[in-house]
Structures are given as C-alpha cells and as structure tokens.
Amino acid sequence: MMAGRLGITAPGIPDNPLSLSWHDSAWIPILNPSNVLEYFSQGSNPFYDRTCNNEIVKMQRLNPEQLQNMTGLEYLLVHMQEPILYVIRKQHRHSPTQVTPLAEYYIIAGVVYQAPDLASVLNSR
C-alpha cells in the first residue's frame, strides 16, 4: 500500500488536495464497479471522510440503497469506463431527491486524484 504526493509544498502550508494522489497496489488488478467504492473507502485514502453515511451503511450492514433515505455526507460512483476510469462524487444529501455536490475524484488505473473545480481550472490559466 502506498500513498504518494505530486508536487512540492512548503513547510507549514497545508497540502493542496489537487496535488495529492493515493493508491493501494494490492487492489489495482481486481478493481471493478462492484468494489471501487470499497477501495475508495480504505483508511489510508486521504480523500475519504470516515464520518460519511457510507460508513454507517457499511458498519450496520445495510443495503447501499439506504443512502438515498439518509441526510449528510456520502460518496457515490457516478461514472465509469471499465477497466481504467471511475469517477466518485462526494456530496451532501439533503433529501432523497436533493443533493449538493462537494467534490469529485477520479480513479485512473487504480490511482485516485481529486478533480479540480472550475475556479481552480480558470485560475490556472
């Protein structure tokens, strides 16, 4: 299992999440749509918030569809292009039909990155 950083930050300055990456080599050959959220939820993944509703569902062994009836932070697989690309959205669920997207993460060849938001893209130009 490895966690890696791309880019260099000065001491005392918090890391920019857009400069981080994470992967677990043991999982990469077996990643698929049915286990990618489990992979993303590994404790060593700095992008995963363990206070999310996904953890409650996992600990109580509930059906993952129960997430729609909960409110709060959750992660959801929103896109995939097997076997190399998966996109996971971090969102705040307000009701069964209303969510606010907070961040998106993409997994390319097993390596997780945070996708930049529009402001970051525009500011980089």
Gist?
It is found in: Nucleus. The chain has helices at about 35-40, 55-60, 120-125; strands at about 1-5, 20-25, 70-80, 85-95, 100-110, 110-115.
Q: How would the blueprint of this fold be written?
A:
Elements: E1 2-5, E2 20-23, H1 36-40, H2 53-59, E3 72-81, E4 85-93, E5 99-108, E6 111-114, H3 118-123
Antiparallel strand pairs: 1-2, 2-6, 3-4, 4-5, 5-6
Explain what the structure shows:
The protein has three helices and six strands; from the N terminus they run ββααββββα. About 15% of the residues lie in helices and about 35% in strands. With about 120 residues, it is an alpha+beta fold. The model is unreliable at about 1-15 (pLDDT under 50). The longest helix has 7 residues, at about 55-60. Strand 5 (about 100-110) and strand 6 form a beta hairpin. It is globular. It starts with a strand and ends with a helix. The protein has one domain (about 20-125): Mediator complex, subunit Med6 (Nuclear Transport Factor 2, Chain: A, Roll), CATH 3.10.450. One of its GO terms (biological process) is regulation of transcription by RNA polymerase II. Keywords: Activator, Nucleus, Transcription, Transcription regulation. InterPro entries: Mediator_Med6 (IPR007018), Mediator_Med6_sf (IPR038566). Belongs to the Mediator complex subunit 6 family.
CATH superfamily label? Mediator complex, subunit Med6
State the distance separating the first and last CA atoms: 35 Å
Percent of residues in beta strands: 25-35%
The low-confidence runs, each spanning 5 or more residues with pLDDT under 50, are 1-14
Number of domains: 1
